[in-house]
UniProtKB/TrEMBL annotation:
It comes from Flavobacterium plantiphilum. One of its GO terms (molecular function) is glycosyltransferase activity. It holds the Pfam family DUF6341. Keywords: Glycosyltransferase, Membrane, Transferase, Transmembrane, Transmembrane helix. This is Uracil phosphoribosyltransferase. The chain crosses the membrane at residues 36-53.
Length: 76
């Protein structure tokens, strides 16, 4: 059983965490380079929020949104 858990340890430490080790060593040279993935995710989230707000504004101006408090059956 010990060999099984050592095999799992070897899989993660020697193979799956290698990209993270590369990012850790990259951070010593450039902070922006090490956080490049985070910047991409923040840009994607910002674009999604802007798109969502624009869609909310379109439905609000068209008056098609049901804002009645009894819109759901459990609120009756």
């Amino acid at each position: 059983m010990k060999a099984f858990f050592e095999g799992i340890q070897s899989l993660f430490v020697d193979f799956l965490f290698l990209p993270l080790d590369g990012l850790r060593s990259l951070e010593l040279r450039t902070w922006f380079g090490a956080n490049f993935i985070n910047w991409i995710f923040m840009i994607i989230c910002a674009v999604a929020i802007v798109y969502w707000i624009k869609q909310l504004r379109i439905f609000d101006e068209a008056g098609t949104e049901n804002q009645d408090t009894t819109a759901h059956s459990f609120l009756k």
